[in-house]
Design brief:
This is Thioredoxin reductase. InterPro entries: FAD/NAD-bd_sf (IPR036188), FAD/NAD-binding_dom (IPR023753), Ferredoxin-NADP_redctase_2 (IPR050097). It contains 8 helices and 15 strands. It has 2 domains: 171 residues, FAD/NAD(P)-binding domain (3-Layer(bba) Sandwich); 113 residues, FAD/NAD(P)-binding domain (3-Layer(bba) Sandwich). The strands form 4 sheets. Strands 1, 2, 3, 4, 5, 6 and 15 form a 7-stranded mixed beta sheet that branches. The protein has a 3-stranded parallel beta sheet with strand order 9-8-13, covered by helices on one side. Strand 4 and strand 5 form a beta hairpin.
């Protein structure tokens, strides 16, 4: 496979979400040669509007934020390639990454590849994400669900803790399961004390109707909610790093030190590939830390 130009990059960033683009902006401002390879699957692109990212009091849509970050990165000369890295190798002078266009050589690599939320493959639920009827991040937008009818959907023990969190915002919270299974005794007591409803019947069908979501249960009843929070797990896209021997936790998040360095020399990880706290503000903070350490670790580039 041909070697892809430009050669001898200072840094290759895998992933073009808020973390990857912020890292690219910092590195470009440090006058480093950097390329972003992005597969176009940023979780941020699914956000209809976020109100908890500082500086946007009226909120900003995820695609609009990505557009602004992309424009800023390109203004500093960052090349953003729409492609997918399929292999990553450690070589003597850094790394070699493979994509459909060839092999990219780089002294440093930043894993900003994020994660993918699991869903049920249900078209009604997937379409409802765009208008805020289905949401995945109560930390991001629980405030916007204040005093609304909220359902939390998933395994009782995992979804139950998120239901308790959302009780901060509404008195009307219901825990729904797909298997009809209960939860541990301690959690059951906490749910009861918090006034969270927990039907024994399992959720079997979902429908968007008149500005809300209806859920049909296995006992024939139908419930209506203003917003549903699925808790179905996720896939952390850290496989490239793990294959190089990067340490990780049980969910696949890569382990890093205070400078966002993995145990693989020259390999950094930021954003959702690292943290269980899936927040844009956290991701961009990681990016600034990683970019600064990368710059300081490379030979000086005096003007």
């Amino acid at each position: 496979m041909p070697r892809f130009e430009p050669k001898d990059l200072d840094a290759l960033i895998i992933g073009g979400g808020p973390a990857g683009l912020t890292c690219a902006i910092y590195l470009a401002r440090y006058r480093r040669q950097v390329v972003v390879v992005d597969s176009g699957e940023s979780r941020a692109a699914l956000i209809p509007e976020t109100h908890n990212y500082p500086g946007f009091a009226d909120g900003i849509a995820g695609p609009r934020l990505l557009e602004a970050l992309t424009s800023q990165a390109k203004a500093y000369g960052v090349e953003i390639i729409g492609d997918r890295i399929t292999a990553l190798l450690r070589v003597e002078d850094g790394f070699e990454a493979t994509c459909s266009r060839g092999i990219i050589g780089s002294k440093r690599v930043v894993m900003a590849s994020g994660l993918i939320d699991h869903d049920l493959g249900n078209p009604e639920l997937q379409q409802a994400v765009g208008n805020g009827l289905v949401r995945y991040c109560p930390i991001c937008d629980g405030f916007e669900a204040s005093d609304r009818r909220i359902a939390v959907l998933g395994n009782a023990n995992e979804a139950g803790t998120k239901a308790l969190f959302l009780r901060t915002y509404s008195k009307d919270v219901t825990l729904l399961t797909l298997d009809g299974e209960g939860c541990c005794d301690q959690l059951a007591r906490e749910l009861s004390q918090a006034g969270i409803r927990f039907p024994k019947a399992r959720a079997v069908a979902f429908r968007k109707q008149n500005g809300h979501m209806t859920v049909s249960l296995s006992d024939g009843t139908v419930e209506a909610f203003d917003v549903i929070y699925p808790v179905l797990g996720c896939e952390v896209r850290s496989e490239l790093g793990r294959k190089l021997g990067a340490r990780h936790n049980d969910t696949g998040c890569l382990e890093v030190d205070a400078r966002q360095r993995t145990n693989v020399a020259g390999l950094y990880a930021i954003g959702d590939a690292v943290s269980d706290l899936h927040q844009i503000a956290v991701a961009t903070g990681h990016a600034a830390v990683a970019a600064t350490d990368i710059h300081n670790s490379l030979p000086r580039n005096f003007r």
